[in-house]
């Protein structure tokens, strides 16, 4: 049995890079220190904020909500609202929604559920079916990602949020980094910065990732130790996503060479630094306003409107 390097009690976690072991109490202290250092390092919040926390009902986002809600008790100028986007995925989102409701009710935090059906007239399941019937070339995760990002920004703004916090952890960030290199998507790499926006558009809500430097196994342990750990359900569309293969391979690399993920993160930060000096070339000029819906967009018409047009589900 391994004992805590600080107090000698049985350890629940070993940091494989430093070799330090932590018991429950000292793991939670280590976790808190690490997140606070990330928040400070990237200047994520000011003393007066309405923080909208994007919550999916999964372990990472429930941990983020729990963490920020507890932190907000010490910052009188903070207000927290949890926002869940219900894409309408049968057998998945209906289950994670229950975990979301359990935790927001236990904490007593304000929340909002915004659904694809309410805003676009169709659930993701229906959108995927229509896309297949029309022979469109997109994968379920493409619709899901575009519509979800669109709604997160729009609804966070409608709620009066000054900042939108997402639960992307170090693993998510480096996986997306590798995916974007494979796809040659440099504009998307810019989105992987720890803080993004308001990107010269008044309708953009600033985004922050407080778990940017936290490993997935650390957020998982935080959720277990705080009785947040939800029922494990996998999205039925996940198998179409290349992310899961990259995830597995990065985990194998980390196992063999501890520190691989941190190295990738440092490489990403360096690339973001270089790319931001060429931002105009990469995102083809300034952020525009979508001619159809009035939301911020990289092109004359935003991706969400383009998808809706191709699917034939435009409302007006
Ligand atoms: Fe959406 Fe794809 Fe994630 Fe499922 S796996 S929730 S479809 S992005
Ligand atoms: Zn639009």
Layout of helices and strands:
Layout: E1 13-14, E2 21-22, H1 24-41, E3 49-54, H2 59-72, E4 78-86, H3 93-107, E5 110-115, H4 116-120, H5 124-133, H6 140-158, E6 163-165, H7 170-182, H8 186-190, E7 195-196, E8 206-208, H9 216-225, H10 243-256, H11 260-276, H12 279-282, E9 288-289, E10 296-297, H13 303-311
Parallel strand pairs: 3-4, 3-6, 4-5, 6-8
Antiparallel strand pairs: 1-2, 7-8, 9-10
Helix pairs in contact: 2-9, 7-10, 7-11
The site of zinc ion has 9 residues, from helix 13.
Give me some keywords for this one.
316 residues; alpha/beta; Rossmann fold; 2 domains; 6-stranded mixed sheet; two-stranded antiparallel sheet; 48% helix; globular; binds iron/sulfur cluster; binds zinc ion
Describe this structure in words.
By secondary structure, this protein is an alpha/beta fold. It has two domains: 33 residues, no CATH class; 237 residues, Rossmann fold (3-Layer(aba) Sandwich), CATH 3.40.50. The protein contains 13 helices and ten strands. The protein has a six-stranded mixed beta sheet with strand order 5-4-3-6-8-7, with helices on both faces. It has a two-stranded antiparallel sheet with strand order 1-2. The protein is globular and about 65 Å long. The mean pLDDT is 93.
């Amino acid at each position: 049995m391994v004992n805590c390097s600080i107090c000698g009690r049985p350890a629940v976690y070993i940091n494989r890079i430093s070799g330090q072991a932590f018991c429950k109490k000292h793991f939670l202290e280590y976790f808190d220190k690490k997140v606070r250092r990330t928040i400070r390092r990237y200047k994520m919040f000011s003393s007066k904020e309405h923080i909208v926390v994007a919550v999916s009902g999964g372990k990472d986002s429930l941990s983020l909500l729990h963490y920020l809600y507890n932190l907000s008790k010490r910052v009188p100028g903070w207000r927290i609202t949890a926002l869940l986007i219900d894409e309408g995925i049968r057998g998945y989102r209906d289950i994670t929604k229950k975990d979301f409701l359990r935790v927001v009710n236990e904490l007593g935090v304000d929340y909002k559920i915004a659904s694809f059906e309410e805003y676009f007239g169709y659930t993701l399941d229906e959108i995927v079916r229509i896309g297949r019937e029309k022979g469109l070339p997109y994968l379920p995760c493409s619709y899901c990602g575009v519509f979800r990002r669109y709604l997160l920004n729009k609804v966070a703004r409608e709620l009066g949020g000054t900042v939108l916090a997402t639960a992307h952890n170090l693993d998510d960030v480096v996986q997306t980094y590798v995916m974007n290199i494979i796809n040659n998507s440099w504009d998307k790499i810019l989105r992987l910065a720890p803080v993004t926006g308001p990107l010269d558009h008044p309708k953009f809500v600033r985004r922050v990732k407080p778990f940017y430097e936290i490993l997935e196994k650390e957020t998982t342990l935080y959720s277990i130790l705080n009785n947040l750990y939800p029922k494990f359900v996998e999205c039925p569309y996940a198998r179409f996503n290349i992310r899961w293969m990259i995830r597995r391979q990065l985990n194998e690399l980390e196992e063999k060479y501890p520190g691989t993920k941190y190295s990738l993160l440092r490489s990403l930060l360096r690339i973001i630094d270089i790319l931001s000096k060429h931002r105009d070339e990469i995102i083809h000029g300034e952020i525009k306003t979508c001619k159809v819906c009035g939301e911020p967009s990289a092109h004359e018409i935003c991706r969400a409107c383009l998808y809706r047009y191709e699917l034939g589900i435009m409302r007006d």
